[in-house]
UniProtKB/TrEMBL annotation:
One Gene Ontology molecular-function label: sepiapterin reductase (NADP+) activity
Species of provenance: Paralysiella testudinis
GO cellular component assignments: cytoplasm
Protein name stated in the entry: SDR family NAD(P)-dependent oxidoreductase
Main location: cytoplasm
Localisation per UniProt entry: Cytoplasm
Record's keyword terms, sorted: Cytoplasm, NADP, Oxidoreductase
Gene Ontology biological process terms, A to Z: tetrahydrobiopterin biosynthetic process
Length: 242
């Protein structure tokens, strides 16, 4: 992946919004580095690494590898899209699975923070860097049953705000809520036990009324926001904002 100008690093690129973002940037001529447990078939312009991003030790070790260093070498612009996340456990506090809590903290918080830290440490000197966390309205409003998911997304908003306050050179940063997108995550929400996740009916109704946003349209909206000259002036954003 040497001798290129623009690199987009996308976590959870295999399905849903991550796949739509990867396809968008590939079509726009970017090189894409996709990080996910499962991979696409070989695709021009796409380098992939099979990683369990919920295994913080595995990710931290990989970020010390030659593969990571070689991926960044020669880039004049790098975009990190921290997309991979889990919505589980969808349950009231006191009814949550302990392993699901630990996995959510690792995947939703630790992985984006590790990747952001490594990018700032290892990007070529003078490289323009953009870090985008995929946030959620659940991190900005209180929803019963989403104590874990909401807390992890609120953490990303705060991390982005602190990054911006640190005034790193050649860095733009934002945390974007993508709205309610028609992905496997939504299917998981609709399969939740309503007895422990009171919000399930709301998402069932959005699905019945065909009110979910498409991943492709959402990816295009997000890419337009990121490409705008004023991106980063307001850290916490939403694709549904006026």
């Amino acid at each position: 992946m040497n001798n290129f100008k623009k690199l987009a690093i996308i976590t959870g690129h295999r399905v849903g919004l991550g796949q739509a973002l990867a396809r968008h940037y590939l079509a726009a001529g970017w090189q894409v580095l996709g990080l996910s447990r499962r991979l696409w078939a070989p695709t021009p312009g796409l380098q992939q690494v099979a990683l369990d991003l919920a295994d913080s030790g595995e990710l931290a070790a990989w970020l010390q590898s030659a593969v990571w260093q070689q991926a960044l070498a020669g880039a004049s612009e790098v975009l990190l899209l921290n997309n991979a996340a889990t919505v589980e456990p969808n349950a009231l506090v006191g009814k949550q699975d302990a392993d699901a809590i630990v996995r959510a903290l690792a995947l939703n918080i630790a992985a984006p923070l590790l990747l952001s830290n490594a990018l700032l440490a290892d990007a070529p000197v003078g490289c323009l860097k953009t870090i985008v966390h995929i946030s959620s309205g659940a991190g900005r409003h209180a929803y019963a049953g989403w104590a874990v998911y909401g807390a992890t997304k609120a953490a990303l908003d705060q991390h982005a705000a602190v990054l911006a306050a640190e005034n790193h050179p050649n860095l733009r940063v934002g945390s974007i809520a993508p709205g309610v997108v028609d992905t496997d995550m939504q299917a998981a929400i609709r399969s939740s036990d309503v007895a422990v996740f009171p919000l399930r009916g709301r998402f069932d109704e959005l699905h019945r009324q065909d009110l979910l946003q498409s991943p492709v349209a959402t990816a295009a909206q997000m890419a337009a926001m990121i490409a705008a000259a004023d991106f980063g002036q307001t850290v916490c954003r939403d694709v549904r904002e006026p």
